[in-house]
Amino acid sequence: MSNKILEEINVKFPKTEKKLEKSYTNCEKRKKFIELSKKDYLKHLELAKDDLNSIEIDFNKKNWRWVITKSYYAVFHATNALLVDKLGFFSKDHLCAVIALKRENLIPEKFYKEFGEIYEKFSDIFGFAIVFEARKLSQYDTEKWKELTEEDAKVVRDFAKKFVSFVEEECVKNEFS
User: Fold this and answer.
1) pLDDT of residue 173
2) Average pLDDT of the segment spanning 138-150
3) What is the CATH number of the domain that holds 84?
């Protein structure tokens, strides 16, 4: 699969367990994790689903920039829903949120493998970082956003849909167990 813009994204994420732990501690020190009642995961999940609902409108209008931006927010809010549900906190920082997901092993390996079939860069936790970086490009790069394609938007949108669905299933499982 050729995604011109997504291929150019350089992911900056801790690559070793030691660096992951150091990054997590740094997030804690900078107070990027905010405690919440675990039942408050629903508020974050509701935001994620609202973002997903509006993505299709932009997709049909061929507004790739906003598809990617809204997909990012759907993933970010779903990530926080999972963190709140499982750990009792959310993150104000997207990188810290992804670091917490990875450190606490909240995403099963089979989930990454499924995404590896969609797009090879989604084969591990780096896929989250790609979605976050694609959003920065779509919102702030005054030139590159014009190069975003339907394929770029579809990859990121599909990731958001699958991830929000996964989080919803995980949180519901917790409610009934």
Assistant:
1) 77
2) 67
3) 1.20.120.330
Domains identified in the chain, total number: 1
Question: Has residue 68 got a pLDDT over 70?
Answer: yes
pTM of the model: 0.82
8 A C-beta contact, residue 129 and residue 13? yes
The amino acid at 168? E
**DSSP calls for the chain:** ---HHHHHPPP----SHHHHHHHHHHHHHTT-EEE--GGGHHHHHHHHHHHHHHHHHHHHTT-HHHHHHHHHHHHHHHHHHHHHHHHSEEESSHHHHHHHHHHTT-S-HHHHHHHHHH-GGGSSTHHHHHHHHHHHHHHH-TTGGGG--HHHHHHHHHHHHHHHHHHHHHHHHHHT-
